[in-house]
Specification:
Helices cover 46% and strands 17% of the residues. It has 875 residues and is of the alpha/beta class. Strand 32, helix 34 and strand 33 form a beta-alpha-beta unit. Helix 6 packs antiparallel against helix 7. 51% of the residues are buried. The model has no long low-confidence stretch (mean pLDDT 92).
Length: 875
């Protein structure tokens, strides 16, 4: 028996979303509920997948089923497709199972040609309406199916209005519109070298093919990647009998929501236009009226609309986004779907619906996309200011929020402008390094030419809650001349520029931003999330300020404190360089002695901010050359300060330079070579914990993490150094204190020998940034240059640095979890890579049995909600 690919609306229901797509399933459900729906049929998502499997062709069997469905629709409507006596016209819309803006636009009035339009004019007694419908169809089909730009047709309309001395499309006569239709067909032929198709069946198959084709257009691929939508879902196609909002003053069309999508207010919100078709409402050519005015224009239609809108919301238990048409006084619903909304509205709607008794707390938690919470926690652009702004570039949305400020090209200049002149600052760099930290702290936003979503700039900016756009390859920065060229503009130091870290868009000038207030709805909603989640949520924090910030967002501990960031402060970097340039152990120990006091104070601040919440401190991780100067002038200055020759400094810098530092002398390898570094850091951690315990009467249990372990023996060597130092410090203080020593799992080999490593390590924390780099064999800072081609060609569906690669990296994590637990059943398991704030990755961590995730402070609420949703998915 042949696979069924085509379904009449009456044959489906809301449960068939994966087969019929969201739109098709909702139209079927509304048909079942007896609502006024123009009837039609859905070509399934399986037909879309078959189209690609057949080399981008629609199979004869699917064509046969479409013809049969069309014949059935002719029976239902009493009209005939292509007839010149009583023509059936249809609309064609795409409909994936998840709402996807950027997929194919709607085509209306399909089935018209030169003969049918004449018959249509006679049948309706309204030639103006008939030719208006025809010119719209030619324009939509040309634009959407054949990809001839809309602008060419808009130009012809403008010329016609100018010629006739009118302002609105509705003022053009039937003859004007007939002439326009002829001009449109001539434009089509000029652009494509062939006549506009007159056969309605050819038009229909062209439109269905275009929907399938749009599933893999660039916009759709990018949207899927950003929203974790699999490429093999495919899209459905909905073919629906036309109803007409452009028949005259008793007809109209509109879009409405059952609640306000911007604020969440429980009041119908929307717009409509009389004597118009669907796209007119959103095209901005005519100004739509608010939906409330419909009560005066057409009271009966308005009452019916409100009654059905409320029924739909009660039925779907969610805010609905509805399209409707009124044809000669009769109301029709064209579609409904769960409406897109701002984060503030999503929280209000979820909380209000619980209070109204419509949904439970658990159902409410599933109504909000965790990623949306970013909007609540960061400044955004003022909508009116944004509308007027000029976009000049596009980069990766590396850290959310909006920022506007004066452009500076060095960390030092940015710091000076902010601290001394109190300016709002945007820091622009080719790429950032740890020594740019103070400039990043001073900046409202950061722009980099190189680097990806997990580059240094992205990771640090997210941790600080600072807006960042990364990898803007079109930007040309001259750091010497202090200029930036982008989008046809040339900016110099001190010029204003604006960044949107949530979209990656870059704007010229000073675009006004607005703070977002965190409401009581947010607090209540997050309490529900905490009630149902199993995973703990920690934060990655390197300063007391970041730690306290994360606690205010609900962090239950610190999963990663990167000690290297502490050494780049102005008063510390000279001591760090002194230690690196030392030629023997006594000289190194002397420099480390100065650093010990500073590190101890750092840890005291963090422990005081976190109280007894767990804190995992990672020992020094980056290669030492990162701390040394790169420019000759800076090397000469360092030589002078240290009383050594420039040649000695230069020689040491060259000696420490590595061709592939990611896989070089770093992490635990530093502590094997220079155990005195591990000794100093262990002493600082334990002394700080003892001091805070004593001062505040706490019982802190420090967690000391050894990075980049790949072999049990190297872990043993460093762990022995750490334990000997810790035990000695505890004994010296006469204190009673427990502490844990664990490791960061970030090398594939460590996953494979995790059973051996767990003999020593009391906890594992997955460093998925490096684990991803080493598993895939590419650098996170350089991969952005070629990954776009991988997405376009559908080799990868998502960025492996943004979402855990479940098949590869995920399998290694699973192996490490199983092996680690087999050796040490009570082993602590967590993740501290950037994936800890990605909802899909959090769900994966829940599935494989991790106990906590750790992420940057501003992503803590996202992780809390994602963890709750993962737990509810198990029920």
């Amino acid at each position: 028996m042949a696979t069924k690919y085509v379904y009449q609306f009456r044959e489906g229901d809301a449960t068939m979303k994966s087969l019929l797509g969201g739109k098709g399933a909702n139209l079927a459900e509304m048909t079942k509920l007896g609502m006024p729906i123009p009837q039609g049929f859905t070509v399934s998502t399986e037909a879309c997948n078959d189209y690609y499997a057949q080399g981008k062709t629609i199979s004869p069997e699917i064509k046969r089923q479409i013809e049969a469905a069309l014949a059935e629709l002719e029976k239902i409507s009493g009209k005939k497709f292509g007839s010149i006596d009583n023509p059936l016209l249809v609309s064609v819309r795409s409909g994936a199972r998840a709402s996807m803006p950027g997929m194919m636009d709607t085509i209306l009035n399909l089935g018209l040609n030169d003969e049918v339009v004449e018959a249509f004019a006679k049948k309706t007694g309204n030639p103006r309406f008939a030719y208006d419908s025809y010119r719209r169809f030619i324009q939509m089909y040309s634009d959407v199916v054949m990809e001839v730009g809309k602008k060419y047709f808009e130009q012809l309309i403008d010329e016609m209005k100018h010629k006739k001395g009118v302002k609105l499309d509705t003022e053009l006569t039937a003859d004007d519109l007939k002439e326009l239709a002829g001009q449109f067909k001539a434009e089509y032929k000029a652009k494509l070298g062939e006549d506009f198709p007159a056969d309605p069946y050819e038009q229909l198959m062209g439109a269905i093919t275009a929907v399938f084709r749009s599933w893999n257009n660039d916009r759709a691929i990018v949207y899927r990647r950003m929203n974790d939508i699999p490429g093999d879902w495919g899209t459905a196609v909905n073919v629906q009998m036309m109803v007409f909002g452009n028949m005259g003053d008793t007809s109209g069309t509109g879009v409405a929501f059952t609640r306000n999508p911007a604020t969440g207010e429980n009041k119908i919100y929307g717009e409509y236009l009389m004597n118009a078709q669907g796209e007119d409402v959103v095209a901005g050519i005519r100004t739509p009226k608010p939906i409330s005015v419909l009560e005066q224009d057409m009271p009966a239609a308005y009452r019916e609309f409100v009654e059905i809108a409320h029924r739909l919301e009660q039925h779907y238990k969610d805010m609905q986004d509805m399209e409707f048409t009124i044809e000669d006084g009769k109301l029709y619903f064209l579609q409904t779907r769960n409406g897109k909304r701002t984060a503030a509205a999503a929280l209000k709607i979820a909380v209000d619906m619980v209070d109204e008794g419509m949904i439970s707390e658990k159902e409410a938690l599933l109504k909000v996309d965790p990623k949306q919470l970013d909007q609540v926690l960061h400044p955004t652009f003022d909508p009116a200011a944004l509308k007027a702004a000029e976009q000049i570039g596009q980069a990766l949305p590396a850290s959310p929020g909006s920022a506007a400020g004066k452009l500076y090209f060095t960390a030092e200049d940015a710091k000076q402008a902010h601290n001394e002149r109190k300016e709002r600052v945007v820091l622009a760099r080719l790429e950032t390094s740890p020594e740019d930290i103070e400039g990043m702290v001073a900046a409202e936003g950061v722009l980099t030419v190189r680097g990806g979503m997990t580059s240094h700039a992205a990771v640090v900016a997210r941790g600080m809650g600072t807006c960042c756009v990364a990898g803007c390859g079109d930007a040309k920065i001259d750091e010497q001349a202090k200029t930036l060229e982008l989008g046809g503009h040339s900016f110099k130091e001190g010029d204003y520029i604006s960044l949107d870290g949530s979209t990656g868009k870059i704007y010229a000038g000073d675009v006004k931003t607005q703070a977002v207030a965190i409401t009581g709805d947010f607090a209540r909603f997050m309490e529900w999330a905490d009630k149902y989640r199993k995973l703990k949520v920690r934060t990655n924090a390197d300063t007391p300020r970041d730690a306290a910030n994360a606690v205010s967002f609900g962090a239950e501990g610190i999963g990663l404190t990167r000690t290297e960031h502490m050494f780049f402060k102005e008063d510390r970097i000279p001591r760090m360089r002194e230690m690196i340039l030392a030629t023997d152990e006594p000289a190194r120990r002397k420099a480390l002695g100065y650093l010990l006091e500073m590190q101890r104070e750092d840890f005291i601040g963090i422990y005081e901010a976190m109280q007894e919440r767990p804190v995992t401190v990672r020992l020094l991780d980056p290669p030492l050359h990162e701390f040394l100067p790169k420019e000759e002038a800076d090397m000469r200055l360092l030589a002078k300060d240290m009383g050594i020759t420039f040649e000695q400094v230069k020689a040491r810098c060259e000696q420490l330079h590595e061709f592939n530092p990611m896989m070089g002398h770093r992490g635990c390898r530093l502590c094997v070579t220079y155990p005195e570094i591990a000794e100093m850091q262990a002493r600082a951690i334990i002394e700080a914990a003892i001091a805070v315990n004593k001062k505040h009467g706490l019982h802190i249990v420090p967690e000391i993490m050894i990075p980049l372990t790949g072999e049990k023996k190297e872990l043993d060597y460093v762990a022995d150094t750490v334990k000997a130092t810790a035990d000695k410090v505890i004994a010296e203080a006469g204190a009673q204190m427990k502490y844990l020593v664990g490791t960061m799992i970030e090398i594939p080999r460590a996953c494979l020998v995790a059973d051996e490593i767990a003999e020593t390590a009391q906890f594992f924390s997955f460093g998925t940034n490096d684990l991803t780099q080493m598993t895939f064999g590419f650098s996170r800072d350089d991969a952005g240059a070629f990954l776009d081609e991988y997405y376009k060609k559908q080799i990868y569906e998502s960025d492996p640095f943004a979402r855990v690669d479940f098949k590869g990296v995920g399998q290694l994590m699973k192996i490490a979890v199983e092996k680690g637990k087999a050796t040490r059943p009570d082993i602590k398991l967590g993740i501290c890579g950037e994936h800890g704030g990605d909802p899909a990755s959090v769900a994966f961590c829940h599935q494989i049995g991790l106990q906590y995730v750790s992420c940057s402070p501003y992503r803590v609420p996202i992780a809390r909600l994602a963890a709750a949703q993962a737990a509810l998915a198990d029920e």
